[in-house]
Amino acid sequence: MTRHNPTALRFQALRLGFRALRALSPDLARRGAERLFSTPRRHRESEAEHIARCGGRPFNFMSNGLRLRGHVWGEGPAVLCLHGWEGRGTQFHAFIEPLTKAGFSTITFDQPGHGNSQGRRSGPLEWAQAIQDLVARVGPIHGLVAHSLGAAGAAIAMDHGLRVPHAVFVAPPAGPEPYYHGVLSLLGFPPSEHPAAFQAYADRTGLPPERIRLHSLAPSLSAPMLVI
User: Fold this and answer.
1) Which of 52, 64, 132, 188 is the most buried (most CB within 10 A)?
2) pTM of the model
């Protein structure tokens, strides 16, 4: 008896659906790809994250009409830790004790559409706005540690005027194109259609492509920075 992989079947159906949609309306197909690209999955919290969360002081703040959830540990100058795509703030649980012992407080929050924060769709501009809204609420920060897309959001926020005395970027993406093109390929878009699809995505962010590419923003980032 032939066994069928449900995930493979759903993926095949998705590709067929996008093939039909591209024939009917290329613009609708591009918008559908943008929706998938911008919709994170929420994952179960690990035991270590749960323990860390229970030991932190929770707080909420608003950004773009969404209630976002954060936590703070310790006292002293604040170090903001920013998670990556489909992550959570408590994934920085291993940083809490070292920073606290060094005399700092650790602040994390779940980005829009992630963890215990509201929202469905998300992206680097929403993350940048959330970072700016958080700092406006808690006051100046001593520095930040940002992973992956968190680094992209931080760079855009810094480009928009956020003052960061010290920054650490861990595995920052140079730009969104490789990831977006990868999603387009998985959905069956031929390579010839990728540039126009990405341009449409960039246009709808309201910023030119060079203002959402970290490698384009890097020369304007004046904060002392460690990039890993």
Assistant:
1) 52
2) 0.90
